[in-house]
Design goal:
This is AMP-dependent synthetase/ligase domain-containing protein. InterPro entries: AMP-binding_CS (IPR020845), AMP-dep_synth/lig_dom (IPR000873), ANL_N_sf (IPR042099). One of its GO terms (biological process) is wax biosynthetic process. Pfam families: AMP-binding (PF00501). GO terms for molecular function: long-chain fatty acid-CoA ligase activity. With about 625 residues, the chain is α+β, with helices and mostly antiparallel strands. Among the domains are: about 250 residues, Luciferase, domain 3 (Roll); about 130 residues, ANL, C-terminal domain (GMP Synthetase, Chain A, domain 3). It has 18 helices and 26 strands. Strands 1, 2, 16, 17, 19, 20 and 21 form a seven-stranded antiparallel beta sheet that branches. The chain has a five-stranded mixed beta sheet with strand order 11-12-13-14-15. It has a four-stranded mixed beta sheet with strand order 4-3-10-9. The radius of gyration is 27 Å and the shape is globular.
Length: about 625
Amino acid sequence: MTTTKKFSAQLGNGRDGQDGRPAVGPIYRNLLAKNEFPPPLPDVSTAWDSFRLSAEKNAGNNMLGWREMVNGKWGPYVWKSYKEVYEEVLNIGSALRACGAQPGAKIGIYGVNCPQWIMAMELLNPDCSSTTRLKSIVCFTSFTEEENLKARNAGIEAYSWNQFLHVGKENPSEPVPPQPINICTIMYTSGTSGDPKGVVLTHENMAMFLSGLDLFLEQFDDKMTVNDVYLSFLPLAHILDRVIEEYFFHKGASVGFFHGNVKEISDDLMELKPTFFAGVPRVFDRIQKAIEDLIPRRRKIFHLLYKYKLFWMNRGYKHKHASPLADLLAFRKVKNKLGGRVRLMVCGAAPWSEEVEEFLRVTCCCFVLQGYGLTETCGLSTVCYPDEMSMLGAVGAPSVYTEMRLEEVPEMGYHPLADPPRGEICLRGKTLFSEYYKNPELTTESIRDGWFHSGDIGEVLPNGTIKIIDRKKNLIKLSQGEYVALEYLEKVYSITPIVEDIWVYGDSFKSMLVAVVVPNEDNTKKWAAQNGCKGTFTELCSLKEFRNYVLSELTVAAERNKLRGFEHVKGVVIEPQTFELLPGLMTPTMKKRRDKMLKHYQAEIDDLYNTLAKGKC
């Protein structure tokens, strides 16, 4: 077994909090940075350095691939080499200068994943107040005559991609390389309410990410090569996909874009045959279901092979050596459905079910692991080690240029010096963002004493890895990676006349919300009279018809308030007693103690999710 290994270095003993400040745990570092951060790559101090050097070294390699429609069907992947892309980048830079953009200017990119990030036409709306500040727009395909006229009427210069490249060729200018302290990108986080936050990442942040991943991967026998291929379908405005592609370009490898329909992603997999695949839990849930549909009639044999391979993996054998016979008889068919060449699958954006992770580790014949990070940390804060079954369910150890510690969250009962250590994950290091764009107040609130407060609650496991167990301030991610503000939803739903009180619950391993509802007694009795139902208030609360009515009223409230689909409550538990009468569920200031609520209703919640999974509710 490998559970005795330690995967992080612990520095210091933390602070007990007796001085009035929250208690904090010790600092955790990657073992490669136990004593100090190692020196970064000598020739790469900016993302531009990485791309330029890779283009020189790998000029003829395939860099960007996409599929074109041929006779009404999606054809094979066509590619642009590193040399071709580099030349286009220089021309685009020259065209921007010719249009008046100076070094340091900010350029907006909006579109789906493609080699050009197809530009959306709605920016041409002349009624938009921002139109007066928009001088030029570049469509990554081409404009229609109607769209060109619309742009001219709005006082905007409109270019097709090829026209813009021609402008650059006709007006060449020397590149002005960025400095490490310059802004590399402003990436906006997907907030649930209010304005999105613009996370400012510098070139140094990106360069240190590349250096750290290089050093980390050097520990393992399986190296990344120029022959590796990544299928890009997560949004490029998502930090996970962005940093993966940056690293692939750094190594001279290839990135192929999906053709635009996630439901047909299997077709892109078979055509591209990627070696690396990244997704969110919801995507991997679908993969698991697809694999289970492939299981032959002799399910008992499949599960015997599964248990046999899992046994040897748990004993410390690498996945490819645990049971070659099981791979030959059953699991190679799974790998073939993923294109046949996948060597690594990574899950991010939200916690992953241990059951699904274990299943894919056994059946996919490749490395399968989790990582954890935020836009504010340039994507990678912790990462798991390949083939380490002791990390199942965890998100790994701190990355090379990251320091991590836990901070006490007294209102939720989490303490970093308890056993096990639990608390809010705080991060600092070389990949930490510099600020929220034009929001100094939020920057000061989020970065205190040099530590970024993530809002995620972590637990340090005995082997030095971290596990995500909760979310501070009740902002959670569902399994598809969408943020949900539970307290906000409770305010929306509580306005419903039939609702006296409501507790909304979301599990990061599930895709749906459920709720415990305390009905309004008077309105419940009115419903009963109108529907010919008799009984005490408690008896009425137990009726399936009443439960369905409450759920329908919540749905009406959700639609009236224009909640998004994943914010709709899909199932309810009816509680006849008010939460205040149930011991321990409320604070003295009448706030719900969510950990106690979950413990109290755990059985009902589990039954409800099982019922929803079976489609009976």
